[in-house]
Amino acid sequence: MNTVLARHQMIMQQIRPWIVSEPQLIETLNDLARDRFVAEEYRHLAYADTEIPLPHGQKMMLPMIEGKLLQVLKIEPHHRVLEIGTGSGYVTACLGRLADTVTSIDIFEDLIGAAMTRLNDAGVTNATVRHMDATVELPDETYDAVAVCASMPRFDERFLDLLRPGGRMFVVVGDAPVMEARLITRVDGAAVKVDSLFETSIAALINASETPEFRF
Q1: Nearest Cα to 116, choosing from 132, 101, 133, 129?
Q2: Is the pTM of this model over 0.85?
Q3: CATH topology assigned to domain 3-210
Q4: Per-residue model confidence (pLDDT) at position 49
Q5: What is residue 213's three-state secondary structure?
Q6: Quick one: pLDDT band at residue 87, thresholds 50, 70, 90?
């Protein structure tokens, strides 16, 4: 497989049509080899318009969703970012290329170990990966951007405490087969703004069904 050509086609045919065009983001997607974050048996699918299986029944998001997530968070070089759901480490690497620092958490220790190896191989040195169940505990910090890379049947209000003023969160809420991708922005103090982005369906956050429901 010509991975350079496949990566270019992924960007032009899958990601850019979703109004993803920020130059630094496109450069990041061009530079990072997504196939290096995929298990050997699935590398032929690394740039395809499909979810790629991960251990524990998890899946990599579609490239177009990854691109849209990165675009709407509007990450700047001075930003501190939190990722919930490390998965393969590919989105972690993208966030690391765009932000100042990235903290990524995942419930599965083997995914964390594999992701750390891939991040080191990709030269991403500003990302820290931690073992944590987000439905039980969250980092005691606030962030400029939060990427929730798994869905929740109901939004957990604790996640709002992660956003500093002006901070933005990408999250997918609902039940399969139709979920809603949302952008939540901390306006000021306790006030938040919620924008509905698009309908989708992605793998659920482990134990998310046990979290309390919150209505805006």
Answers
A1: 129
A2: yes
A3: Rossmann fold (3.40.50)
A4: 97
A5: coil
A6: very high
